[in-house]
């Protein structure tokens, strides 16, 4: 009796041990992979930061490890931030982005509400069309748009960008808002209808507050996309004073053959800062928006 | 002044499917009417048409004497409690209840007075600052009712309000709903698929099936005098037994010839009623509670005794259910738990023939 | 009975003029509101996507000065040019290699993230997604600097471990590889996030059931994870194929098409021909070449998304 108990006990102990070992191996592999990939993923921004803290002399010095900084300086940042041209880039980016985000959210929330709740002639076709336009890349249509914007006299103007950026933001934002609105139970609008709400009240008092996470996610998307847009400003804007940050940093700080690498890296980091800050504080919404396109709607 | 009147209401969906096939119904002021039936019978559609959430294909609906066919829900002066409560998740309990009043531009003091009054009736005063997420199922149910009460509407509409609750809470909330109705006395239309809910709550029960009304009546009437086979089978639990029989003349009286050679005498007071059907194949309906063990000293008249061999015995505590088969028909009997019974061993059962029903299989109507 | 009376009194009133028209008006009002709400969207889609698409096709049939319609002349010239075929070839190599690598790395990382305790996942996920958050034109500047032949930090690392010195952007094949590396670096985190979301949506009970049925880790991957993720994998891959195929930023910043125009992709070549050299019609023709491939991908993405929605209903 006691003998059998002992063997059974031993058997159990052995099995637990092997399971434990298996799990530990999986964990070790996982952590090694993650550390390795994190190093690679973070190396470029890290190196940009290091470079931006160096003086031109230190950058030019080919001896020694380029991955460390010996005499850190904020000179590059200071020069950029006091530079009228760079300030102009920043202001242009802010103006364009803010207007585009507001326009996008108004257009897409209204349209998504109508498409998700008020079935009407052609609503299904329109919803599919919205998704298809989301799949049209900006590089497919930038040449005809160049002609159109030119025809309107808006080349070399931030207003030309304000006009075309919605093609980048509106389809996706509408699409994910349709998804968020569609996930609101139908009884909620029926309750609101009985409570005496009209369509506009239903949208502002019920749908927008309930779908707030979706609205935040869509806003973040619109913000990051307009901030990072590159093809349109590169094509439509050639005068420096109308350039937003992305193309400004790439084209105006990289001049001639002598590259002020420290300044270029500082400029790139400063330009990348707003989306990174938004991401740092609103990561969950950011990721929800990212994954919503394929899983919602 | 809030009767509800339905005249020849038809609801036809795209593709010609008729969910409701021309029903007539008069609901009196202060009445509590329950629409009951299996899923897909059109009861919810009927309720939603009264609410104005579904357009009616044809017919007329009047609330409080005024035709409301084309009137949007907000102007019908109705309140509705939904199956999933449909509480606004971003509003507190107070705001949920105040929302309808706010949209109707009531002044703040009046809103507060009404919400607090409803909260007192429903005993949810301490929940007013919470969000629906932080409430239990029963509490959400109360808030949903509170939202209806504050409006002081002409009609309450309930759409399966208890089906998301667990069994115990359901019984408790059932009592609660009845209590509220006794307090506020608002005309109520209540939809459920649960016949026990229907029986316990209703002044009158409307049994629906396949988009038509099978029968309207007080609970006891439906139980004792079902008009159709459907109602007979739907009301009562366990359901009524249906046994194919042949009605034959046996001297002065009538007899039912059951499969397996059993002959049951029909009570004398039914002779006149059933005489036109002599010689026909009919369905004999008898509720399990009227098929019991043979009691000594039982002096009731018209008790017919026969022997049955149960295949399954289900002790329920206060009673025991016996299941046996008779030529393909499953028969259920309810016997006293003290009676010894085991599967495969025959025992005598007494059928209370005063409670019998005969159904015409051609029309499914009770004769 | 009383209700009957009122109803009878009320009925003629509405039957006379009210009923049908009120109902009609209601329906009309609702669809009018809906139309007004979608109008801005329709304007954006029609004016800034549909119209330019048609206009682009028209543009591609004009001569350089846009004075004359030359039919398929632009396409014929492109077909005869070696550079164009190089561009087509490079676009395909670039897109396919980059997407495959991104998908594999993303899948691996998602699994590794899924394996560690839930508490730490957020932190790691946050770190690994950084490349996706930085505007690619800007992060590519950093890569450009890292690839620099004389000051490059990557070559320095190689020299430390005794590896070869690589002419990253100077030699065509290395330049192509560089572009792919940057694109994979930028895009793999996106795949990781999508796959992680998909992994998390697989119910744990399925794995437990599979484990009890005796499935090994690999079998669980083969018979549970992959089938459950098949749809999201294909949607993500196809979507990424579209975006990668049409990529512009990275090529523009990293090589600007060089060396000797050998790293141009459709987008950068169209830009070069259409905007920089001023031959708008031919530029339009170049970018139109992307259309068939993108359309096929888009069709399958749409099908995948529709199917996925049906599954979730």
UniProtKB/TrEMBL annotation, chain A:
Q: According to its UniProt record, where is this protein mainly located?
A: membrane
Question: Which GO biological process annotations does it have?
Answer: transmembrane transport
Q: Which GO CC annotations does the UniProt entry carry?
A: plasma membrane
InterPro entries listed in its UniProt record: BP-dep_ABC_trans_perm, MetI-like, MetI-like_sf
ABC transmembrane type-1 domain location is 90-282
Q: Which SUPFAM superfamilies match?
A: MetI-like (SSF161098)
Q: What is this protein called?
A: Carbohydrate ABC transporter permease
UniProtKB/TrEMBL annotation, chain B:
**Keyword Repeat: yes or no?**
no
A biological process term (GO) from this entry: carbohydrate transport
Q: Is-annotated flag, keyword Transport?
A: yes
Pfam families registered for this protein in UniProt: ABC_tran, OB_MalK
Which keywords does this Swiss-Prot/TrEMBL entry list?
ATP-binding, Nucleotide-binding, Transport
Which InterPro entries would you find in this protein's record?
AAA+_ATPase (IPR003593), ABC_transporter-like_ATP-bd (IPR003439), ABC_transporter-like_CS (IPR017871), ABC_transpr_MalK-like (IPR015855), ABC_transpr_MalK/UgpC-like (IPR047641), Mo/tungstate-bd_C_term_dom (IPR008995), NA-bd_OB-fold (IPR012340), OB_MalK-like (IPR040582)
List cellular component terms (GO).
ATP-binding cassette (ABC) transporter complex, substrate-binding subunit-containing
Q: What terms describe the molecular function in GO for this protein?
A: ABC-type transporter activity; ATP binding; ATP hydrolysis activity
Give the species. Answer: Siccirubricoccus deserti
Family under the similarity heading: Belongs to the ABC transporter superfamily.
Give every ABC transporter domain span.
4-235
Q: Write down what this protein is called.
A: Sn-glycerol-3-phosphate ABC transporter ATP-binding protein UgpC
What SMART domains does the record point to? AAA
Automatic annotation (TrEMBL), chain C:
Give the residue spans that cross the bilayer: 33-53, 87-109, 129-147, 173-197, 228-248, 284-305
Q: Which InterPro entries match?
A: MetI-like (IPR000515), MetI-like_sf (IPR035906)
The ABC transmembrane type-1 domain, residue ranges: 88-301
Instruction: Quote the protein name from its UniProt record.
Output: Sugar ABC transporter permease
What is the annotated localization of this protein?
A: Cell membrane
GO CC terms, sorted: plasma membrane
Report how it sits in the membrane: Multi-pass membrane protein
Q: Which BP terms from GO are recorded?
A: transmembrane transport
Broad class of where this protein is predominantly found:
membrane
Please name the Pfam families in this protein's record: BPD_transp_1
Among Gene3D superfamilies, the record links this protein to: MetI-like
Entry annotated with the keyword Mitochondrion: no
UniProt KW keywords = Cell membrane, Membrane, Transmembrane, Transmembrane helix, Transport
The source's superkingdom equals Bacteria
Q: What does the similarity note say? A: Belongs to the binding-protein-dependent transport system permease family.
């Amino acid at each position: 009796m006691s003998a059998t108990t002992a063997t059974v006990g031993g058997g159990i102990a052995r099995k637990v041990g092997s399971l434990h070992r298996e799990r530990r191996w999986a964990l070790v592999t996982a952590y090694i992979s993650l550390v390795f990939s994190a190093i690679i993923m973070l190396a470029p921004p890290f190196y940009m930061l290091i470079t931006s803290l160096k003086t031109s002399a230190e950058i030019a010095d080919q001896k020694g490890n380029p991955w460390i900084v010996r005499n850190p300086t904020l000179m590059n940042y200071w020069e950029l931030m006091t530079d009228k041209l760079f300030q102009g880039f920043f202001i242009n980016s802010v103006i364009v982005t803010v207007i585009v985000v507001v326009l996008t959210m108004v257009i897409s929330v209204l349209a998504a509400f109508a498409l998700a709740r008020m079935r009407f002639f052609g609503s299904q076709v329109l919803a599919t069309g919205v998704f298809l336009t989301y799949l049209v890349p900006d590089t497919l249509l930038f040449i005809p748009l160049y002609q159109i914007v030119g025809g309107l006299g808006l080349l070399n103007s931030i207003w030309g960008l304000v006009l075309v950026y919605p093609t980048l933001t509106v389809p996706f934002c509408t699409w994910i808002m349709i998804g968020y609105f569609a996930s609101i139970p139908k009884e909620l609008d029926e309750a609101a209808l009985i409570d005496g709400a009209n369509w506009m009240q239903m949208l502002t008092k019920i749908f927008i507050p309930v779908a707030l996470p979706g609205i935040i996610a869509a806003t973040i998307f619109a913000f990051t996309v307009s901030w990072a847009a590159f093809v349109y400003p590169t094509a439509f804007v050639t005068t420096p004073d109308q350039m937003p940050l992305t193309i400004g940093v790439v084209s105006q700080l990289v001049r001639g053959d002598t590259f002020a690498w420290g300044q270029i890296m500082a400029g790139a980091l400063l330009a990348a800062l707003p989306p990174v800050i938004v991401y740092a504080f609103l990561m969950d919404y950011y990721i929800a928006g990212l994954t919503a396109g394929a899983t919602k709607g | 002044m809030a009767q509800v009147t339905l005249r020849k209401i038809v609801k036809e969906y795209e593709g010609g499917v008729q969910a409701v096939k021309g029903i007539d119904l008069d609901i009196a002021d202060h009445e509590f009417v329950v629409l009951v039936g299996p899923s897909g019978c059109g009861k919810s559609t009927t309720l939603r048409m009264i609410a104005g959430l579904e357009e009616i294909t044809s017919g007329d609906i009047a609330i409080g004497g005024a035709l409301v066919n084309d009137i949007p829900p907000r102007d019908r002066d109705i309140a509705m409690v939904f199956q999933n409560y449909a509480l606004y998740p971003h509003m507190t309990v107070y705001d949920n209840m105040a929302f309808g009043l706010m949209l109707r531009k009531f002044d703040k003091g009046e809103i507060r007075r009404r919400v607090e009054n409803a909260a007192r009736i429903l005993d949810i005063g301490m929940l007013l600052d919470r969000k629906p997420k932080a409430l239990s199922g029963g509490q959400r149910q109360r808030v949903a009712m509170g939202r209806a009460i504050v409006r002081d509407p002409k009609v309450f509409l309930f759409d399966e309000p208890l089906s998301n609750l667990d069994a115990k809470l359901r019984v408790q909330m059932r009592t609660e709903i009845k209590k509220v109705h006794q307090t506020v006395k608002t005309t109520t239309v209540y939809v459920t698929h649960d016949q026990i809910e229907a029986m316990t709550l209703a002044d009158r029960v409307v049994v629906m099936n396949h988009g038509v009304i099978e029968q309207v009546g007080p609970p006891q009437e439906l139980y004792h005098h079902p008009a159709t086979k459907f109602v007979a089978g739907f009301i009562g639990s366990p359901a009524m037994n249906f046994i194919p029989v042949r009605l034959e003349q046996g001297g002065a009286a009538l007899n039912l010839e059951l499969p397996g050679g059993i002959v049951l005498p029909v009570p004398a007071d039914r002779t006149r009623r059933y005489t036109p059907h002599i010689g026909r194949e009919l369905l004999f309906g008898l509720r399990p509670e009227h098929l019991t063990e043979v009691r000594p000293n039982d002096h009731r008249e018209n008790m017919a005794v026969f022997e049955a061999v149960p295949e399954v015995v289900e002790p329920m505590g206060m009673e025991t259910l016996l299941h046996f088969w008779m030529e393909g028909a499953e028969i259920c009997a309810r016997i006293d738990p003290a009676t010894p019974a085991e599967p495969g061993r025959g025992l005598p059962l007494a059928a209370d023939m005063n409670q019998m029903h005969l159904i015409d299989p051609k029309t499914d109507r009770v004769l | 009975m009383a209700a009957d009376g009122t109803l009878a009194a009320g009925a003629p009133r509405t039957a006379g003029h009210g009923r049908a028209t009120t109902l009609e008006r209601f329906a009309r009002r609702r669809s009018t509101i809906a139309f007004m709400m979608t109008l801005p969207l329709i304007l954006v889609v029609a004016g800034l996507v549909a119209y330019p698409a048609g206009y682009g096709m028209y543009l591609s049939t004009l001569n350089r000065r846009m004075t004359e319609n030359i039919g398929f002349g632009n396409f014929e010239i492109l077909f005869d040019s070696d550079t164009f075929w190089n561009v087509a070839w490079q676009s395909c190599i670039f897109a396919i290699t980059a997407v495959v690598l991104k998908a594999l790395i993303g899948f691996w990382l998602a699994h590794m993230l899924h394996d560690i305790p839930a508490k730490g996942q957020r932190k790691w996920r946050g770190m690994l997604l950084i490349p996706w958050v930085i505007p690619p034109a800007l992060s590519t500047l950093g890569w450009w600097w890292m690839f620099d032949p004389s000051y490059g930090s990557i070559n320095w690392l190689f020299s430390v471990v005794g590896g070869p010195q690589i002419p990253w952007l100077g030699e065509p094949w290395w330049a192509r590889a560089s572009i792919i590396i940057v694109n994979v670096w930028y895009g793999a985190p996106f795949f990781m996030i999508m796959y992680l979301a998909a992994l998390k949506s697989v119910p744990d009970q399925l794995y437990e059931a599979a484990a009890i049925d005796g499935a090994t880790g690999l079998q669980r991957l083969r018979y549970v994870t992959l089938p459950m993720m098949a749809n999201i994998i294909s949607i993500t891959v196809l979507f990424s194929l579209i975006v990668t195929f049409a990529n512009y930023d990275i090529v523009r910043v990293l090589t600007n098409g060089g060396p000797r125009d050998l790293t141009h992709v459709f987008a950068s070549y169209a830009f070069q021909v259409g905007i920089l050299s001023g031959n708008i019609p031919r530029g339009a023709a170049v970018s139109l070449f992307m259309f068939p491939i993108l359309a096929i991908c888009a069709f399958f993405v749409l099908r995948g998304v529709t199917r996925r929605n049906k599954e979730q209903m």
